[in-house]
């Protein structure tokens, strides 16, 4: 009860905090949770609709009855990582805004359990509100999603409605992800409260992360050997495993690469804005990667789905085959669109969260005479530099994993290259829009005296 009363007190104080007058952190976290829940329900609704159609098709002997749920499940697995990443980012944002206050409570005598409970309560409260709004977002998107054509016809809204049970389970999953991510993000507050309160620079990343690439390549060689004798569903399982391993490797190596890029940028900087951007990247590459990790995953997904550009419906041997090929194209583009939206929202949330978390540093620079245009330029380069590095790293990782499976000639086809470049450009545009939204947050922080 003491912890609950303390949490309620902190919530009341937070609403009157002049350093965060609009509760921007809470708003950002709620938006992230809402988008996560809404997109997850849209994906689940589409998968269940195609599964129901598959069962109906199997009853009448349709030859492609089982194909659509498999492909839909593959798309869901591809998007599961960016969805989970966005939900985790929202939970970490809830903790990072209050880490100094929680560290002070820890130093004042609060137990680790009390500090952890306070953090989880904050994250869970925001997750519940965001999940409820996400359900509303899902309901609002249903009429638009129903216009998509699969198997030669559009959907009925009733087909895409998941029902009360899956709704409740999805909301519960979002809340659990928020609670778990909050606990993980709070480890440094519980273990080293003095370091958190003093804003000590976190330890650097080790080159051991590159070992993941070596291990992944060894595993890929083994998979290639096994796939020569694999047939049917086993091939798809191997492909899904390779894609999952590729995205996991990308998330491990990405922050290390950004750390190297940050140090190189700072060492070669010829302007104050570039120096600030480089130093911030080098000091905290993990957070920088979270800001652009969405577009890195979208780039990887774009590479994995760009092969659908080779499917030409005019070359189909039957009307049924033409429908399947067109549906493969539609599904690939839909997967890319969702990945791009998730990347943009993730970047906007993380960039704005970083501005709020670093508001004292921005204010100190402004009081010291730094021009607002210099600070804006630094934030811009703090987005563009890791963005370019993330796209490059994701492209190399994608080719490293996909070329051995499908051959290098696949990615030399003009149609595949055009779709890949167009998809990456669209994802980058979403990310830049999200980053631009953080600029208004920064100006508001400076104007309010934060």
Automatic annotation (TrEMBL):
It comes from the Bacteria. Coiled coil: none annotated. Keywords: Membrane, Transmembrane, Transmembrane helix. The chain crosses the membrane at residues 21-50, 70-95, 115-140, 160-186, 207-227, 233-261, 288-311, 331-350, 387-411, 417-438. This is FtsX-like permease family protein. It comes from Miniimonas arenae. The lineage of its organism: Bacteria, Bacillati, Actinomycetota, Actinomycetes, Micrococcales.
